[in-house]
Amino acid sequence: MNTTDVENFPGFRDGIMGPELMDSMRGQAERFGAQLIPDDVTEVDLTGEVKVVRTVTEEHYARSVILAMGSGYRRLGLPREDSLSGRGVSWCATCDGLFFRDKPIVVVGGGDSAVEEATFLTRFGSSVTLLVRRDELRASKIMQDRAFADPKLEIAWNSAVVSINGEDSLTSLTLVDTRTAEKREIEAAGLFIAIGHDPRSALVAGQVELDEDGYVVVTPGTTATSISGVASVRRPGLDGWASLPRCAIGFPVMLDWAGAHVACVCPRP
């Protein structure tokens, strides 16, 4: 988990760092006998009564499978975004923020994640600019108050990135005003993209029913999918997400097959 401060997890009055929370979840799961295997799943066959989960090194068999595949960082879709990844372009402030000490940093996004990244990065950058496509933030009030109170954080309203500039490393960004279409260029050594996530459901496409956004479809009020013996975490935003029990490394799940051998397909922590 790359999240910095987690403010809304029950039981932590003053919040907790994401990596610390994940380590605690992992340790608790292992104390109760969960076996966590650090391997990448390459293929699944969920059609039969016995499900097959293939990894890089071996095969696992189970009568029940819980899908908790998580999501990946959403990209801007601009040229040089991938080629400058690790050379100024990043999706993880806690991973890469230290590399931009005393350098100008730009964060893209207007939600909680973007504001969290931006306020975290003010401890490193010479300046931090938060680019917001609209004239308001989508972040929660507590996060907005934190952003507005940070003297090192500047918010550029109605701004979007149209070009990522630099050869061997990021040097600047070309922005466009979303109201007037006027363009301008700003200096940037670091670009942190926080515009949401896309589900990592390609592994089960064609077997389990997916919705129009690529999330696994579940029966309302349950975690049952279109295949018997296969459950999935519920899509964020659905009723009951926060109240569901958690799988071995913290993803919400519900197990309906008592006593069955269950394989939980989760992202590597």
Explain this structure.
It contains 4 helices and 18 strands. It is an alpha/beta fold and 269 residues long. Strands 8-15-9-10-11 form a 5-stranded parallel beta sheet, with helices on one face. The chain has a 3-stranded antiparallel beta sheet with strand order 3-4-5, with no helix packed on it. It has a 3-stranded parallel beta sheet with strand order 17-6-18, with no helix packed on it. Helix 4 (141-148) links the parallel strand 10 (127-131) and strand 11 (153-156). The chain is globular. The model is unreliable at 238-262 (pLDDT under 50).
Quick summary of this structure?
The protein is an alpha/beta fold. Helices cover 13% and strands 27% of the residues.
Write the layout of secondary structure elements.
Blueprint: E1 5-6, E2 16-17, H1 18-31, E3 41-45, E4 51-55, E5 59-62, E6 64-67, E7 71-73, E8 89-90, H2 93-96, E9 104-108, H3 112-121, E10 127-131, H4 141-148, E11 153-156, E12 159-165, E13 172-177, E14 183-187, E15 190-193, E16 197-199, E17 230-232, E18 262-265
Parallel strand pairs: 6-17, 6-18, 8-15, 9-10, 9-15, 10-11
Antiparallel strand pairs: 1-2, 3-4, 4-5, 7-16, 12-13, 13-14
Helix pairs in contact: 3-4
